[in-house]
Amino acid sequence: MTATHQALWVDRRGTFRVGPAPTPTPRPGELVVEAHAVALNPVDAMPGVARRFVYPWLRLPTVLGTDVAGTVVAVGEGVSRFRIGDRVVGFASGQERFRNDPAHGAFQHVVVLAADLTAHVPDEVALTDAVVLPLALTTAAAGLFEPDQLGLPLPVGTPVKAGDERDETVLVWGAATSVGNNAVQLARAAGYRVVATASPRSAALVLGLGASAVVDYRGRSAVDEVVAALEGHTLAGTVAIGAGSLSRTIRVARRTQGTRRVASAYPSPVTAVRRQLARPYGVRVSAIWGGSPARSAVGPAMFRDVLPVALAHGRYRPSPPAEVVGEDLASIPAGLERLRGGVAARKLVVRLRRDPDPR
Prior knowledge:
By secondary structure, this protein is of the alpha/beta class. The chain contains 10 helices and 16 strands. α4 links the parallel β9 and β10 (193-197). The longest helix has 15 residues, at 298-312.
């Protein structure tokens, strides 16, 4: 590899520029991956002021991005699962507090990944499809499985057979989102029945991912319809995704049998206020941090034990569908601008070519 490669840097003002970055050498437990595709997430599209609120520890300039897929070009000491040339997808942890390192940001041609947060991609799955998974997967997994969230048992590698499902239901409010798509699949993989909400145009997609019932969240009777769909079933927990989801899922939890734990994927001051207001009713609200599995047993379980096997056997769908919106690093800012305007039922992806100037 050359001494430098090209990266998309962001400064304190939120200004992006493509420029050189030192090509890293992997430390123990790490991989170096040549990126072929990156996916864009709302957290990447935040303006500078909002980014400083969400990531107050972040040293700038840095390289953003969490979702990356490509091929392994170097393997660190102690890593036995991967070889040079393997096709992989991984969670780039450069923005996390414990990491805070541009070498681990996704928006560049050469990325450092923790081996425990990386999964093999089968040949039949395009890297531009697989790359939609990492942050949405870890956010959904955090909400479902972290002990301070819903704390559900982790999925096992083998599929749950008909008749062996748990006699409990998980509610996924906002199932047509990236996080929701993954929450439905992971809850089913863990053996739970799933009731979900989505718009009518996304209902078929959500049912295809494994939900037993889908309610239109926009209707005035949505809460009543969800309660009816849960009748006769024990609620194992709720994942609330999107603006407006928390108040309605709290109302559902108060009216159903089972746990009253609600994990919100909308961490904001409003979530903190609603957490306090819900306590007198026995409803426990928690705020999901999508990067928490990078520091817990949940992340390695997803990328080492669950995802590779499920992808290889066609039991896990990279979803929502990828839409390629560019072919190089310079096209990422325009993709982020489009993302800020709102994107539904798909994930924006940029395909990366090899450095045109590898010096």
